[in-house]
TrEMBL record:
Protein name in UniProt: Single-stranded DNA-binding protein
Stretch list, region Disordered: 99-137
Matching Pfam families: SSB (PF00436)
Gene3D superfamilies named among the record's database cross-references: Nucleic acid-binding proteins (2.40.50.140)
Keywords assigned: DNA-binding
Keyword DNA-binding carried by entry: yes
Bias type Gly residues, positions: 101-119
Family matches, as InterPro entries: NA-bd_OB-fold (IPR012340), Primosome_PriB/ssb (IPR000424), ssDNA-bd (IPR011344)
Domain of life: Bacteria
One GO MF term attached to the UniProt entry: single-stranded DNA binding
Length: 137
């Protein structure tokens, strides 16, 4: 098994589907930038989240939301783009997802249970005023 982690933004609202066998899944696409300046490239990642976790997160997975996804990378597949050019699609079966940003702060879900992310300044044990100046270790 391989495990990969990507951070990026959702390019559209997530969509919910049910397979013919009755398995619930949520699909969404993440755009992840790498490189700088003229060498900057965007990688597109087609993500799928199975089960009740996906259904529970569906309302939060909206276009523009920054997420960090981790899971098993699927083999790349080729398809023809709208412009007729060959393209390569990369898929990820999501195991863990962190929802970042937004008015509600940082949220995450792992293994079907919520878990706390990094403390926000409002809930930092030291009171939060100096949280941004804390050393990163």
């Amino acid at each position: 098994m391989n495990v990969c982690t990507f951070t990026g933004r959702l390019v559209a609202d997530a969509e919910s589907r049910t397979t013919p066998s009755g398995t619930e899944l949520v699909r969404f696409r993440v755009a992840s930038d790498i490189g700088w300046g003229d060498r900057r490239q965007t990688h597109w990642l087609d993500c799928v989240l199975f089960g009740s976790r996906g259904k529970a997160l569906l309302q939060h997975l909206a276009k523009g939301l920054q997420v960090t996804v981790s899971g098993e990378l699927e083999p790349p597949r080729q398809y023809q783009g709208r412009d007729g050019e060959p393209r390569i699609a990369q898929g990820l079966v999501v195991r863990d997802i962190d929802l970042q940003g937004g008015a509600g702060g940082r949220q995450s879900a792992q293994g079907g249970q919520g878990r706390g992310g990094a403390p926000s300044p409002g809930n930092h044990p030291a009171g939060g005023a100096d949280y941004d100046n804390d050393p990163p270790f």
